[in-house]
Amino acid sequence: MGTIADGEGTELNGYGGEKEPGGGHGGPLTQEQVHGIKETWAILAQDPVERGVDLFMKIFEEDPDLKKLFYFADDGRELSREDQRMRSHGERVMEAVGGAVDSLGDLTAVVPVLTELGALHHKYGVQPSYFDTVGAALIYILETNLGDKLTPSIRQGWVLVYGIVGATMKKGMQQAMDHQNMAKTRP
Ligand code: HEM
């Protein structure tokens, strides 16, 4: 039985259908990738609030409709980088990704938190596919902030790690949907 980090039982094709080289079935991260992910995250995490804002600015650029899901941006106003509520949510997302990076040796440690978080996001009106948009934006901010430091191998490691984060949140969301549907059909 493999651990989550081995990629067993998870959707490890990353986000948005991006496949890993070699058929995309994950496989464990190499020590070099673990080291590289931690090192590159340490650079981004120097300013989690600003990087969280970068992340959501990219997400909203890719899919402006997602703004509607945030009470802070549902009134049609131009969203500013200084918006405190967006900064706070961005920081929370960064914390959740940071939690996964801290647990790279045994990602099962963060599964309960991420599953619960996925279920909560069902209540917020988030669709499973939105987590793919977040994943693509995360890779984008890694690329723009890190330049050459994000080697192809480290990038591939990141796709794998976010693939696990996103898949786990989606699983929690699916459980919440199933639960809701069961409650609806009960006499
Ligand atoms: C486009 C995708 C997403 C949308 C539309 C979204 C939306 C929301 C909304 C509306 C809230 C509640 C209000 C707030 O605190 O701002 C929330 C809370 C939160 N979100 Fe997201 N979210 C998204 C993705 C994510 C991701 C990928 C993560 C983490 C990896 C995350 C982490 C959190 C956390 C930690 C909270 C606070 C939960 C609580 O304790 O109540 N969100 N999100």
Features:
mainly alpha, binds protoporphyrin IX containing FE, Globin-like, 187 residues
Structural overview:
With 187 residues, this protein is mostly helical. It has a single domain (31-185), classed as Orthogonal Bundle (Globin-like). Helix content is 60%, strand content 0%. The protein has 6 helices and no strands. Helix 2 (48-62) crosses helix 3 (84-102), helix 4 crosses helix 6 and helix 5 runs antiparallel to helix 6. The longest helix is centred in the last third of the chain and has 34 residues, at 152-185. Residues 1-26 have low confidence and may be disordered. It binds protoporphyrin IX containing FE (HEM). Protoporphyrin IX containing FE is lined by residues 59, 66, 69-70, 85, 89, 92-93, 96-97, 117, 120-121, 124, 126, 130-131, 133-134, 165. Protoporphyrin IX containing FE binds next to helix 3, helix 4 and helix 5. InterPro entries: Globin, Globin-like_OT, Globin-like_sf, Globin/Proto, Mb-like_M. Keywords: Heme, Iron, Metal-binding, Oxygen transport, Transport.
